[in-house]
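Suppose a colleague, Dr. K., hands you the sequence of a protein chain of 180 amino acids and asks what its three-dimensional shape might be. Before reaching for any lab equipment, you can write down a predicted structure in token form. Begin with the sequence itself:
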Amino acid sequence: MKSLLRLGAVLALPLVLSACWSSDGELLPETELVRPDIEGQWIEPVGAEVSGGDRNYRVARDGNTFLVDRLDKETNLWNADSAVQFVSMGAPWYLADVLNEEDGATFVIFHLKSSREMTVYVPSCSSAVAASGDVQYDDVDNYCYFGSYAALRREAGKLVAALKAGDLIDVELTHTYVRK
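The predicted structure, expressed as tokens, is then:
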């Protein structure tokens, strides 16, 4: 199922294009996958000055995977955007694996602030993360490639703790979405 989703997913989310935590394969264990309440339509309010205005997304669940479609404003058609899986970092915080046929697995942190708002944090590949063990550093693209779920979960836990304390130092980008 995951391989099929990878082949069918075309990733256009801006959060993934700049993400710095990755792996060459899928690391999230099937037994730990959870299904946060994110089904429905979401808007990323970016304003008219950025790429033609707000971005519209539709999220549907397929088992433990969420399929994300993005509205093409020119054709008014929904296009496959990504497939996402989650493990809990202590609700309402989640480590998410954004599945992408070109880049492999890309990891971000989701914070469901309420039933109507979520923020996605794109982690940076800091020197501390790169040197933490079972992480390979790509200095050309400034990516951290995780070799194991244990290393990924350890670093995600540190990042979530920092975010809860209001520390954004190890975050590359943030994206806020509101339910339509």
